[in-house]
Amino acid sequence: MPLEDTMKGKRVIFTLLVLLLSVGFNSKAQQAGSNTYDFLNLTNSARVGALGGNQVGMNLRDVSLVFHNPANLSPSLHQSMTFNYVPYVADIKMTYAGYAHSIEGMGTFGLSIHSINYGSFDRADVDGNLNGTFSAAEYAINLSYSKMLSPKLRAGISLKPIISNLEQYNSFGLAADLGLLYHSENQLFSAGITLKNVGSQITTYNDTYEPLPTDLQIGLSKKLAHAPFRFSLTAQDLFDWKMKYKVEDGNGDEISDAGNDGNSIDQLMRHMILGVELVPSDNFYVAVGYNHRRRQELGVSEKMSTTGFSWGFGFRVYKFHFAYGSARYHLAGSSNHFSISTNLSDFRK
Fold it and tell me: Over the stretch 249-265, which tens digit does the pLDDT of each residue have?
């Protein structure tokens, strides 16, 4: 690579890192549950769902990963498309459709739509008299772009107009994701950093402004050279180390500092999501994941069972990739993730 191009790439990397850190240090940590558009943090990918719910350091030929780190939008994804469907808890449904297109000399572009439908609800007045039904749904349109800064490093950005309709209340917002992704020459190691959901509400539900769930996430992924295993780790919620949230006690009084009891190891683990894959070939994988925060906050102390654990698998048939993921949120319910993807160029071979 010419020296001029190398220096230019380094300047871009430095600028992006400064931007990531400056936004981070100027962001005020929000208590859990105090943000709007929280559906932006819910994964729709079967593979990522099986790996604990979030992975930003993986470098795979999977267009669904652009949702977690826009720098995953690589030239190898040219004409790739995916559709994900998630029958979530309590009859909530999520869908995601994405497409990538690379233009030589310009970079790789992506378009995707992430939506969540909360279902139909009974409308009632203060006396409990029923008066029809109403629905609630939210949508995010992801306009993504990435470019190689060097043979081993990519940068990406996603602009996300957000539309939220909750009964008679409507809100519109605009957010952005910024990401970097590094991979080794032999493709066995990769690392990523993502600044997610930087933005603001443009119009509010009821003249009350709510912040977006801005987050800084860092991830690593390592595939063994002589064994069919890949290990992945992502650290998230790095702007909110304590991750406190508000609850009510049995008397209806608010407790503002619920959450971790001060155990530093437990506090650290609540930020970590662990994933392991068995990958005997490019056409098949089995994955398991562990989300410690999910287990600690949603598990029942008398019977934790498999809360916080997840699993799944994927395989290829003809020119299509199918994947399934299941995540245990609580004793009362799990989520299921279904993904199908293909590459249009494969049909011309």
Answer: 556 555 555 566 667 88
